[in-house]
């Protein structure tokens, strides 16, 4: 039981503080000793950090943003450190704009940084909102010559180094794969949805009661069908959305993902879909694919890199997903017959997941923040 609880706690611990995703988009181009940058930061996040809504009417105007340009610049650039050759590359803002992303209005800071000599290894330290939101991520697109690399910054991965001379197709592919793994591991809503479908895999419903399954083989194939269906579904919509064939509003997608988690968890307690849960995984996986695609799409990757990004990122997501399944299934099967699993982990865990996802649903549907980090 301790092994399974350790897996569950490690996965669920951060969820209680999770809310509508907070991301910024950092685009850098390094040439010689110079770095040109553009940083898109959500106005709602900046308002929380530095206070932009001066009249308190809930509507941030261009005039209010313009009045706080100095505050925005000071706050943001103090939390971005560029280094090359062991020395800092000081950055100065050159222009302020406003842009619309899929999830709202963003302040755009264009800046330039000068290093002491030609940049061979660029070290980036990113700490934006680290003290305010542990779930915030910074999505980096770094260009050098004909190459493009990506990375995701978080409090756990605040400092990263990039060897500019090693930009290659293979390096880019591995970058996208690594980010896919990382994205599923910090994609708490995706993990909770997957866990909701995995929890009953080691049980069987007889006479309205959940009982331990007899052999491992049926549990394995049940999980295989669920994971495969989820993979196929989100791969379809990930590709369509990233290629701009289909586009859905961010709030609708994020709300739909939260709803899928609520329904999948409640189905464990009040089973309506008793068999073929792989159909549920496929149906809701289509929605989750749009969530995965938002990371690639908002990075603004060049068209020549997009196919590589799709394949690498998707394979990374699958690798991260399989790691979660490999950790969960053996422990769940070993403990399936005990009341602690059936009552505490299965029923109790499903209620907890439904409650957390219910809060997400309200936050995302109505653009609220009910849980503050």
SSE order, one letter for each helix or strand: HEEHHHEEEEEEEEHHEEHHHHH
* Average of the residue pLDDT scores: 87
Task: Supply the number of structural domains.
Answer: 2
The gyration radius over C-alpha positions equals: 22 Å
Structural class: alpha+beta
User: Strands of the largest sheet, in order across it?
Assistant: 5-6-2-1-8-9
- Portion of residues in helices? 40-55%
End-to-end separation: 30 Å
Blueprint of the fold:
Blueprint: H1 2-12, E1 23-31, E2 34-42, H2 43-50, H3 62-67, H4 69-77, E3 80-84, E4 87-88, E5 91-101, E6 104-114, E7 121-126, E8 137-144, E9 147-153, E10 159-163, H5 169-186, H6 188-198, E11 203-206, E12 209-212, H7 216-242, H8 250-269, H9 277-298, H10 303-335, H11 339-366
Parallel strand pairs: 1-8
Antiparallel strand pairs: 1-2, 2-6, 3-4, 3-7, 5-6, 7-10, 8-9, 11-12
Helix pairs in contact: 1-10, 5-10, 6-8, 7-9, 7-10, 8-9, 8-11
Question: What does this molecule look like?
Answer:
- By secondary structure, the chain is α+β, with helices and mostly antiparallel strands.
- The chain has 2 domains: 2-17 and 180-366; 25-132, no CATH class.
- Helix content is 52%, strand content 22%.
- It contains 11 helices and 12 strands.
- Strands 5-6-2-1-8-9 form a 6-stranded mixed β-sheet. A 4-stranded antiparallel β-sheet has the order 4-3-7-10, with no helix packed on it.
- Strand 1 (23-31) and strand 2 (34-42) form a beta hairpin.
- Helix 6 (188-198) runs parallel beside helix 8 (250-269).
- The longest helix is centred in the last third of the chain and has 33 residues, at 303-335.
- The chain is globular and about 70 Å long.
